[in-house]
Amino acid sequence: MNERAAGGTVPINSSVAHPARVYNVWLGGKDHYPADQEAAELAAAANPQIVPAVRANRAFLGRAVRELAGKAGIRQFLDIGTGIPTANNTHEVAQGVDPGARVVYVDNDPIVLAHARALLVSTPEGATDYLEADLRDVDSVLTAAREMLDLAQPVGLMLVAVLQYVPDADDPYGIARRLLDALAPGSHIVLSHPAADIGAEEVAESMRVYNDRAAEHAGATPRTHADVTRFFDDTDLLEPGVVQLPEWHPDPADGLSPGALPMWCGVGRKP
Ligand SMILES: C[S@@+](CC[C@H](N)C(=O)[O-])C[C@H]1O[C@@H](n2cnc3c(N)ncnc32)[C@H](O)[C@@H]1O
Prior knowledge:
This protein has helices spanning 19-26, 34-46, 50-70, 90-97, 110-114, 116-119, 138-148, 172-181, 200-213, 225-230; strands at residues 3-5, 76-80, 102-107, 127-132, 156-160, 188-194, 236-237, 243-244, 263-269. It is of the alpha/beta class. It is globular. It starts with a strand and ends with a strand. S-adenosylmethionine is lined by residues 19-20, 23, 57-58, 61, 81-83, 107-109, 112, 134-136, 160-162, 165.
């Protein structure tokens, strides 16, 4: 069992923008279509902080996984909204700390599945798995997770730059709570999210430009600091709390310059 698909995934449609491919444009990758490139470029023109933010987001993901695999001793990860593989994917960072780390990846975009083999190159000691599914299908996600991870032991739940694609009407807080409820005490949630309250006008305009061009059900909703903090309601929020990306356990090696980037991030521990 390596690559599987559950229902609720999106068909490939190259004429409208898809989140994984737009994100790939911003990261300087090559796996996208002209519609994605146009949406990405227009959104970035409306908000020039997007490109520095997505780079800072990848750096946050790396620091958070290192922290969890290192200090918190987490050995298994459930990475939902994986994205097209790029540098420092979750299993590479985690297995860099402990080669025995196990990672289950989940994404609803078939373009990510097309690249899943890169995500499945595990160390011999560890393991990786890939499920094509919508995170709103919590039962399928948890079923796949249980096949490879021991949910009686702590898990690192990665919801990095993905919950913006779940509108309030689909209950993103309930989804995050159901996922966390299934995990053992000592599990951690790693989350980042576009901010509605940092450079609010530019964010609103860039979202409008992107949403006008996005595939059905792929529109994005930015959220405020208070909204994002609510995702950590049932956890002990690790220091320094919900902050801007470069402020979470900064590492000079990331080469990020401090400044207002329109995303919030944080890590919480399930007591
Ligand atoms: C902005 S990228 C983030 C990638 C990676 N987590 C990171 O932070 O670098 C968002 C990813 O979430 C996926 N995604 C969006 N909506 C989703 C959903 N409802 N269920 C599962 N994955 C979703 C997209 O296909 C895309 O690959």
